[in-house]
Amino acid sequence: SGAPMPYRFRVKAFAADGSASSATTALILVDVAAPLTGVQNVVGNGSNRCGIVDGGSVWCWGEARLGALGNGNDAGPDKCPNGVACSRVARPVIGVGGNGTLDGATSITVSGSTFCVVRLDHSVVCWGDNRYGALGQGFTSVAADPVEARAVGPDVVEIAGGYDAGAEKRG
After folding, report:
1. Alpha carbon 142 to chain centroid distance?
2. Number of DSSP helices (H) and strands (E) in the chain, helices first
3. What are phi and psi of 166, to 5 degrees?
4. Of 7, 63, 64, 116, which one's alpha carbon is 20 to 30 angstroms from that of 33?
5. Residue 137 region by backbone torsions, left for phi larger than 0, else alpha for psi between -120 and 50, else beta
6. Which pLDDT tens digits describe the chain residue by residue (171 residues)?
7. Longest C-alpha distance within the chain, in Å?
């Protein structure tokens, strides 16, 4: 903790037409331009990473698909080598309702392109892919804005994700 940590993320290599059906199995490594300092925990999938830094703020980088950056949209400030919107710089996740930045995180997990954190007050906040209702909100659209998960109890201390399931640990 404290020393800058360089990270990389992978993106799929697409054919010249950029269509998903032309995606190859080749992956391109993309360096993160500005390493984070004070990193406590980092989780990720094949194309995205999010981490908690000292003080409990949450930062993400990688491909901008399915709201995985927690920046309120599917756009990224950069283009990755495969032409997909991404962020090559770790950026703070916005707060619930688009207010400020997400803070108070004590643990983080990822399941596919759905990211969730447990906060100091034991609430669970999630963002990203919600096509199957993974965010516990009663809707199935992508949530690029972090939302409080309603399907968990009030005393969660840790959360874990899998490919299509999650679990919580209560205190």
Report:
1. 12
2. 0, 13
3. -140, 170
4. 116
5. alpha
6. 444 444 555 555 444 444 444 444 444 555 565 567 788 888 888 788 888 988 899 998 888 888 889 988 888 888 777 677 888 778 899 999 888 999 999 999 998 888 999 999 888 899 988 888 877 777 788 888 899 887 666 677 677 665 444 444 444
7. 51
In the numeric block, the tokens 């899998």 are attached to: 162
Structure tokens at 41: 């925990």
- Which phi-psi region, left, alpha or beta, contains residue 34 (left: φ > 0; alpha: ψ -120 to 50)? beta
Please give the Cα distance from 68 to 93 (Å, whole number). Answer: 10
